[in-house]
Every structure is written in structure tokens, then in C-alpha cells.
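Moderator note: this is an archived Q&A kept for reference. The question asked for a predicted structure of one protein chain; the sequence and the answer are reproduced below.
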Amino acid sequence: MEGRASGIGMKADSREGYSTLTVSFYWSRRMYKPTELHPVDPRLITIQSDIREHFGWDSNEDIASAQELLQRVESYEIRSWERPQRAANVATAFRRLVLRETEVAILGAAVEPEEVEVALQRPSLLVAADGATGVFSMLPASMAERAWSRLICVVSDADGGEGIYEAVERSKPIFLHAHGDNVGDWEKLLEHASDIATPPPLVLTHQTKSTIEGMSNPGGFTDGDRAACIVRSIGVPAESISMLGTRTDVVGHWSGITDENAKLEKLKWMSKILDILKIRF
């Protein structure tokens, strides 16, 4: 989102028998189908409607962008972008993040090189929010390569500048998001990605209440808190997740071109989403 308030997905509150009392049962079943992304809390979906109302955004624009993104991706003859393979891409993330207990560091827009250095000293895997991979360019070359090797995926609405494009060129998995005002951004990213020798694996996300086969809505608003929603949906416990460079008082260096006041307003909603997830930052 990071524009607005995005499944291989069913509605979070439409699963028969779903309630907060059945979360444990849901997770026991979730282990048998690690190819889908669903919100771990129904409030992650309802808050998206609150965000749209707050900013005066039209949900129809979110739906239109999501449907267009889905159609565009599936028009390419790229195997890693086909629908069954996109589901398999989720399973790959599940294997790397969940089957072996590990720490997960989510890199936000304000992440500093020193924070990445500390994470690399621990048995941590990395997930980046959009252009936050740009921080790797500030590390010594050998350390930067270690960071890239530990990077599981990038969660992006395609406006992260050089960081997201380098991730694409390195064929890192991209969890690509559609919202109402980023059509031009994801079009440009897909055009670039489709031209490289090994296009990156894709998983598609949206931010609507609708069921859109071939896409998922695990919750989230900004790229950073959506990354947290995705990691939790995959099965990583909240206590195993650290948010690096996640701040509400400044606009991070890796945010790309943005309106500072509007961005700071969005970061307040990011904080609410992380509270729902019980992730501290």
C-alpha cells in the first residue's frame, strides 16, 4: 500500500467458524498448506477500510489496480510468474522462514547500515520493505553480499527506487502489491523485470475485501507493516521478528520520492497495524 490502504485469498472474516478462539486450530491446519497468505487477525483487513475512509480513497481504485496487475502478470510467458508457481513461491518462503526456527529482521525505510551489521552477526534472515535494500550499498562489499544472500524477499508497491530494481536484477522474490495509485509504478517494474535473463519470482498482494484468485491480502498498509503481516501469515512468531529502521517520527532515507507530511500521517497507521500484530519496534 503505501499509497492507500491488498491474496490467493479468502476474506479474513469469511472462513467458516473463524474467531479469535480458533486461531490455534487455524495455525495447526495452516501448516498443511503453506502456499496461501491469510491475515492472522481480521482487524488487519478492517483497518484497511478505516485507512481508506481516513484519507478519502476509493476502494474501487484498489480493486481495479489489483485486477489489472493480475492480468498483466499472467499475460507474460514467464514460468515463475504463473499462478501455480506464485503459490510455490510462498511455499519456498515458508520453508526458509518457518521449517527451521530463525530470527527474521524486517528492513524498513529508515534502516541504518549498523543495524544490518548487527543482524548479520545473528542467525537472522532478512525481509526488505521496498527500497530498503539500498542500505546494502552502504556496507563493505563482502558484507553486502552476505546481506543479499540472507534476503528472503522484498515487499514492494514498486516505488522504492534503485533498491527495488537491484533486487529485481538479482532475481530476489518480490511480493508485489497493488493499490489505487501505483499502476504506473508496477507497470514500469514489470516491464524491467520481464526483460532480464532470470525474472524474479513473484507473489501478488492487494488491499481489498474482495476475494481475488491468484492474489492475497494478508493485511498491511505501508510496505514495512505489510512485510510484517506477510511474515506472520507465513508462520513466523511475532517474538521472532525485529523491525529495523521502522520509525514514526521521520521519513526514512529509503522511502523514495514522497510527500513528507503525508508519509508521517501514514506511519501512524503503520504503528496501529504493528500493534495488532503485537510486534514491537
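Archived answer notes: The CA atoms of residues 113 and 140 lie 10 Å apart.
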